[in-house]
Specification:
53% helix; five-stranded parallel β-sheet; 4 domains; 17 strands; alpha/beta; four-stranded antiparallel β-sheet; Isoleucyl-tRNA Synthetase, Domain 1; Gyrase A, domain 2; RNA-binding
Length: 664
RNA sequence: GCGCCUGUAGCUCAACGGAUAGAGCAACGGCCUUCUAAGCCGUUGGUUGCGGGUUCGAAUCCCGCCGGGCGCGCCA
């Protein structure tokens, strides 16, 4: 906002300079307007002269001097000075800064939003864990980051689609095992080897037993109603599949004497589908408690059922990108992705392969020649036994993301630290889909486009420290650390006297803020003891308290007959105290901060922004008394500033998915 | 062996390639008869792992070492 003003003044000055003997000035890149580190350097600084001195053929200081001369006439500036090697330092007239309070209030709750010069439709896929367990504290980081990233992208003017990919393909060995573990628990039999343990598995088993003890018709009726109301073809497909499962299970159930014998009789497939839907329901609930929502829960299996995967493979075979020749290409890649060595590894023909499954029909392995698109080895699409790999689904899935309304321009996929090996193969997958034309040149162009349109974001590992020791997070040891447990634990500790619902909100706020405080690509320690020890050590509360304080002042003011909206332009001119002006500048920066975060995915900077803003408000509050009945004009102006600060805090917290309470 | 991330104050971490590298926690000292003290003000703390390079300028970009985390399946 204020930065934009300075930037456009500089641009105007550059144009005038271009006419006055420095023609290169017309083609300088857009100037940057940064903060000054010290107050004596003024309000804002620009390095435009330093960056462009060479192109303009003038020494930086000389260029800066000429620009400063052009800028001096702008009415908003009190002073424009040249400093150091050639910085331009801008000092704004206080009334100009104060005047922005009016614009901030005019933008209201949409303060963080800005228009984008080239808005995109962006599909953001995140969390996407397997339906064999609850959302863990590890995935929590991806959930917090992904959802905040979506908020920020939207604020920056993009159209965002939030998506969760359900790995429910029939091939999944883990899901087969999960269902058998549940069956064993219901029957009181020993778990299968490597089976799933833990309270949450027992909870699923209890639920399944409960479901099997009653007629399923009500559930089927409900599903039929959903199906009638549903327009989306994929969603309809999922519902239809559920209906079929319910019918099969009901047939079993009605002929079985009790729930246990019914559980014994169910096929693994049907039991798996039951477990899966229960687990997904739980994941959805947990994520909702964490303020994470999705526009689409996309079922992998629906792609298989609809024949999309086979169609996709067919297309690639026809395009010559996939084939059954018995070899794999393996590349040794150098630092910058250049190919150092190409190794062609011959694969055994099926009739001479000793490992081939005996007595089973074998067919030739189908290879995706992904090395043509920068991957380090070719990938298998269909195994000898005929089963498809997950890469086969990924192909169809990514094609669908591009082709399904609203037809994504760009795909963002947020993955955990153990998935960084995916970047190469997913990029190759997308390149294979986007390729058209012939020859190596077409491959190269496709790879380039894939890199532009698919961004895989890897967040780094988060370690949970509790009682001075890392907390276990793995899934099968029966001691997984679920996100919802973290939320509830934080809430209980920090607000012991509150209702459970309120505790969850407190826990959610603290957990989200802590996750988001660190850049997604650094390893972080989440110290539970520190997060729960005492509320006043928490930056979350520091920020929220600032908001509650403002609300309190506004309530008092309202009781005394003041309204912040009553501040007129001449009232705002009374805001001249350094702490007042610093606060205005910070609030006005919110859209700029949001835009920066959207551009480089540095969502964590918003937490720093929120803390800075809260600090400036607290400092202002301490120095400048707001309510002064004997001075109504100043009171109106400061109330307007309070209102603006509240908008800034709400805006930043809103993007982070953290609530802004009115009382604390 | 190869790849991804990372190394900044005692601890946890910030810092569009910018000027004297900043916060919180921890330690110490002040400030409530007035709008929420969950607050404010002050003091203390650094060879940004090491060595080169790029340039007006490097914690940031490039190269090489050293240390830490994670990953390298016809599992998902």
């Amino acid at each position: 906002m204020i930065r934009d003003l300075v930037r456009s003044r500089i641009q105007e000055a550059l144009l005038r300079l271009a006419q006055a003997g420095v023609p290169e000035a017309a083609s300088f890149p857009p100037p940057e307007v940064s903060d000054t580190r010290q107050a004596e350097h003024g309000d804002y600084a620009s390095n435009v002269a330093l960056l462009n001195a060479k192109a303009a053929g003038h020494p930086p200081r000389a260029l800066a001097e000429r620009l400063a001369a052009e800028l001096a006439s702008a009415p908003e500036f009190e002073a424009v000075e040249v400093a150091g090697p050639g910085f331009l330092n801008f000092r704004l007239r206080p009334e100009v800064v104060a005047g922005f309070v009016g614009e901030i209030l005019a933008r209201g709750e949409r303060l963080a939003e800005s228009r984008h010069e080239s808005p995109q439709r962006i599909n953001v896929e995140f969390v996407s864990v397997n339906p064999n367990g609850p959302i863990t504290v590890g995935s929590g980081r991806g959930a917090a980051f992904g959802s905040a990233l979506c908020n920020v992208l939207e604020a920056a003017g993009h159209q965002v689609h939030r998506e969760y990919y359900i790995n429910d393909g029939v091939n999944s060995e883990q899901m087969r095992l999960f269902a058998e573990s549940v069956r064993a628990l219901i029957l009181g039999e020993p778990l299968p080897e490597g089976g799933y343990k833990g309270d949450y598995v027992q909870a699923v088993a209890d639920r399944v037993a409960e479901i099997l003890s009653r007629p399923l018709e009500p559930a089927a009726a409900e599903t039929r109603r959903d199906l009638e109301a549903e327009a989306d073809p994929w969603r309809r497909h999922v519902l239809r599949r559920r209906l079929e499962t319910l019918a099969r299970v009901e047939a079993q159930r009605s002929s079985a004497p009790d729930a246990r014998s019914c559980a014994r009789a169910l096929t693994n497939e049907d039991l798996k589908l039951l477990c899966e839907s229960l687990m997904i329901e739980r994941q959805r609930d947990d994520l909702r408690a964490f303020a994470v929502h999705f526009d689409t829960w996309f079922s992998e299996q629906s792609l298989h059922d609809a024949g999309e995967v086979e169609r996709c493979l067919q297309r690639l075979v026809e395009a010559g990108i996939a084939d059954t020749e018995p070899y794999q290409t393996v590349l040794k890649l150098g630092k910058n992705g250049e190919v150092l060595e190409t190794v062609r590894v011959e694969q055994p023909r099926d009739d001479e392969d000793d490992d081939a499954p005996e007595g089973e029909a074998v067919q030739p392995t189908l290879w995706l020649r992904s090395t043509r698109f920068g991957d380090d080895k070719d990938r298998v699409l269909r195994r000898r036994d005929g089963r498809l790999t997950y890469i086969a689904s990924d192909l169809a899935y990514h094609l669908d993301k591009f082709n399904r309304p609203p037809n994504a321009d760009r795909l963002v996929t947020v993955l955990g630290p153990d998935h960084h090996g995916y970047i190469g193969r997913l990029t190759a997958v997308v390149a294979a889909l986007l390729r058209h034309g012939e020859g190596e040149e077409a491959d190269r162009r496709a790879l380039e486009e894939a890199r532009r349109r698919l961004q895989v974001v890897i967040f780094q590992i988060v370690r949970f420290v509790k009682d001075g020791e890392p907390a276990p997070m793995r899934k099968r040891d029966g001691n997984i650390y679920a996100l919802i447990d973290l939320i509830e634990e934080l809430g209980r500790t920090m607000a012991p006297e509150e209702e459970p619902e309120r505790q969850r909100q407190v826990g959610k706020d603290v957990a989200r803020f802590f996750y988001l405080m660190r850049s997604h690509d650094t390893h972080m320690d989440f110290d539970i003891d520190l997060a729960t020890r005492r509320s006043d050590e928490n930056p979350v509360f520091y920020v929220q308290y600032a908001h509650a304080r403002i609300c309190s002042v506004l309530r008092k003011a309202s009781g005394a007959g003041f309204q912040p909206e009553q501040a007129a332009e001449e009232d705002l001119r009374l805001l001249g105290h350094p702490k007042e002006l610093a606060l205005v500048k910070k609030v006005a920066d919110l859209p700029y901060e949001a835009r920066r975060c959207a551009d480089d995915f540095g969502v964590h900077r918003l937490t720093t922004y929120a803390v800075d803003l809260a600090r400036l408000y607290h400092a202002f509050y301490d120095t400048c008394r707001v309510l002064q009945p004997e001075n109504p004009a100043l009171t109106r102006a400061r109330l307007a500033l309070c209102q603006a600060a509240a908008l800034g805090l709400r805006g930043a917290l809103g993007l982070l998915g953290v609530s802004a309470p009115e009382r604390m």
